[in-house]
Amino acid sequence: MIDRVVLIVLDSLGVGALPDAADFQDAGAATLQHIFAQHGGLQIPNLCRLGLGEIAGRDCAKTDIAASFAKMAAQSSNKDTTSGHWELCGLILKEAFPTYPQGFPSEIVRAFENAIDKKILGNYARSGTKILDELGQQHLATGRPIVYTSADSVFQIAVHESVTPVETLYQYCRTAREILTEPHAVARVIARPFRGRVGAFERINDQRKDFSISPPAATLLDRIKAKGYFTIGIGKIGDIFGHRGLTEEIHTRDNMDGVEQMLTAMQRTQNQKGLIFANLVDFDMVYGHRRNVAGYAGAIEQFDARLPELMASLSSRDMLVITADHGCDPTFRAHTDHTREYVPMLAYGQGIRSGLNLGIRDTFADCGQTIADIFNAQALAHGKSFKNDILSR
Predict the structure, then answer these.
(1) What pLDDT is stored for residue 334 in this prediction?
(2) Model-level pTM?
(3) CATH code of the domain occupying 4-95+215-390
(4) Would you say 365 and 383 are in contact if contact means Cβ atoms under 8 Å apart?
(5) Which of 31, 139, 269 is nearest to 147 (CA)?
(6) CATH classification (class only), 106-212
(7) Do 297 and 254 form a contact (C-beta atoms < 8 A)?
(8) How many angstroms separate the CA atoms of 331 and 336, rounded?
(9) What is the distance, to the nearest Å, from the Cα of residue 24 to the centroid of all Cα atoms in its chain?
(10) Cα torsion at 357, 362, 363, 364 (round to 10°)?
(11) Residue 301: exposed, middle, or buried by beta-carbon count in 10 A (0-12, 13-18, 19+)?
(12) 4-95+215-390 and 106-212: same fold?
């Protein structure tokens, strides 16, 4: 019997290109494997013990595998944070979110400028750090917010902390979210405050905020909350799900703060039934998109070093699940975009079978359906439960 699940998304830790990766220009991408190869190996004994090496086809020190493990394929027609998390929670999107590689149409820009009573800068696709180099000085001189996008379905707004207060930036984002409806309903509007001087700008990541479109149907969070159990979102989980289906939201500064918040939440919810759902975003935001192989490798090793604390905090009726939402291979081609990849699924606990290879799952939604099944919640629209496979006989 499982009473509590701790679900951790290692944001962007893909484990190899999906069969349809070529349709996304991602054939050959493999985030974990390429980091491993280019970095000259990884010191991740705890993730190896849970079966990550078995999934990724990478050598780990010989050890008995302590978890059930699988690779999961994406069925949603996207490779972004929103669709990845939604699919993990049982919602598959067959229509891709709109993207704007040539910038947003004039009617959207005019409506936004009229609503905030300011002209904008930018309106093109660019890396979030490069656009600060290109437009940061002009922004400081004019006070005009920088609007940009990427290969993902995002409307991003960047302002310097000395020019625009962060609460005003958040209001700009709320305004944009109201404007960006069908057919321009982008997945996320993202607040991107920054600081520093010309030539040395830096983003203020702990004040980043995502304003996501609301899920169009019930997700795992809705199902568990409807049962009367707690649902705690840590990191940007609340933002991703439009602040729906959660009993509590905890925002974090970085990966290690996320681990600390998980440990605290685990301590204070002992003997309660529910879900702790955490996103550790640094892998993607700080390292994957910045093509920083050494930094990404260090972040994986840093998380691995904290895993024993998380595992030791589990009770006999807990299950720990570690997965990802997409890839972001920092070695792949000369771009900074997400990559279309399989993700790992590691399920560990005293009541969970060890060494069980669950193979390749057809959809991330198998993860959410399994958790819904564990809580005897209403079944999700998609996914096949593997509860009966992983529970110890």
Answers:
(1) 67
(2) 0.90
(3) 3.40.720.10
(4) yes
(5) 139
(6) alpha beta
(7) no
(8) 9
(9) 19
(10) 10
(11) middle
(12) no
Label the pairing between strands 318-323 and 343-348.
Answer: antiparallel
Q: How many CB atoms lie within 10 A of CB 240?
A: 26
Q: Cα torsion at 260, 320, 291, 124 (round to 10°)?
A: -90
Q: Which of 229, 237, 118 is nearest to 172 (CA)?
A: 118
State phi, psi for 332 to the nearest 5 degrees: -90, 115
- What count of Cα atoms within 13 Å lies in the side-chain half-sphere of residue 380? 31
d(CA 194, CA 181): 27
Q: Are 177 and 147 in contact (CB under 8 A)?
A: no
Six token digits for residue 134? 């290109």
- Comparing CA positions, the residue from 129, 139, 130, 138 lying closest to residue 159 is 139
CA nearest to 74, candidates 63, 62, 60, 85: 85
Kindly state the tokens that stand for 343.
């993700």
Q: What are 202-230's pLDDT values in tens digits?
A: 999 889 999 989 999 999 999 999 999 99
Encode pLDDT of 4-22 as tens digits: 999 999 999 999 999 999 9
| Domain locations in the chain as residue ranges | 4-95+215-390, 106-212
The candidate with the shortest Cα–Cα distance to 58, out of 43, 73, 72, is: 43
> Residue 85 has which token pair?
């998390």
Report the DSSP beta bridge partners of residue 200: 197
Site of tokens 């149907």: 217
Q: What is the distance in angstroms between the CA of the first residue and the CA of the last residue of the chain? A: 11
Contact criterion met (CB below 8 Å) for 334 and 10:
no
For residue 326, give Cα distances in angstroms to 28, 52, 288, 333: 14, 16, 11, 17
